[in-house]
Here is the input.
Amino acid sequence: MVSLTEFPRPPDDLVYDAVDPQVGVVRFDRDGRRPIALTNFGCHALALWDLRGNVSADYPGVVVRELGERGIDGLFIPGALGNVHPVRETEDPCGRIGRSLAGTALAIYNGLTPREDVELALFKRTIRIARQPVADVEAARKEWEVNPPAAEGLARYEYWLAWTYRDQPTCAFDFHAVVLGDSALIHIPGEPFVETSFAIREAAAFDRVMLLCNPCPEVGYLPTAHARIEGDGEVLFAPLEMESEAQIREGAIALLQEAWGRPER
Here is the structure.
C-alpha cells in the first residue's frame, strides 16, 4: 500500500504518509447456511489502474472469490482508504493483493470462535456539516459540456453537486455503530484518510474498532485540514467544508464513547 497513485511502485526518493495495516474480520456462523467473513481493509480498489472507471470488483473481488472457494461467503467493506492506494507490482497486481489479503483474512477467521451469547447493541448519531459553495447550475453544465470525454471526472461531479445541492448549504452526516461485546464497528459515509482512522481507534475504549466506509458522491473524500492545504486530486473531490474532517472525527469518537458508557455495560 502507498499514499500515491502516479507510480506502480513508490520511488525511494519521496516521503510517504502512514498507511493502516489493520485487517479486520468478523465471523458469522449460520445454521444450515455458509458462514460469513466480513473483511475490512483500508486501501483503494485500484490495482487494475489502467482499467479504472470501468466496473470491476478489483482486489476485493479476488478476496471474496478466495474465501468462497473455501466455503465461506465473503463480505468486503473498505476501511479508511481516502489517501491509500495499492502498489501495482507484478503482471497481476489485483490477484497478488487479493490472494495475500484473503490469506490474512482466512487466518484471522480460523482463529475466531463465534459466541451465541455475545452482546449486540446499535447506536446512531447525526451531525450537520457545512458544504463548500457549489457553482451555478448552468455555468457548471456548460463547463461539463465543453469537452465531455475529458471532463467526465471533475467537471461532471461539480455539475452534479451544483444541481443536487444548489439550495443546501449543509448536509446531514450519519454515523452508525454496532457493538459486539468489547469490539465495535463504526460506519461513516465517504472516503476518510488514514489519520482519521488512527485517531478514532486510539480514542476508543473498545478492545477492537473497525471503521467501515462507503465511497459516495454526497460527501466524497474526507481529507484532513492539512491535506486540503497541501492539495491533491482527493481535495478536488471533497465537497464538504475545510474543517469537516475534525467534526467527523469528533462525531465518531463521541458515538463510540456513548456506546462504551451505555448503562447495561
User: Anything to note?
Assistant: The beta strands are 24-30, 33-41, 73-78, 120-130, 170-180, 183-189, 191-192, 208-214, 221-222. The first strand starts at residue 24 and ends at 30. The CA atoms of residues 27 and 112 lie 7 Å apart. The helical segments are 58-68, 93-110, 137-146, 154-164, 194-203, 225-230, 233-236, 244-260.
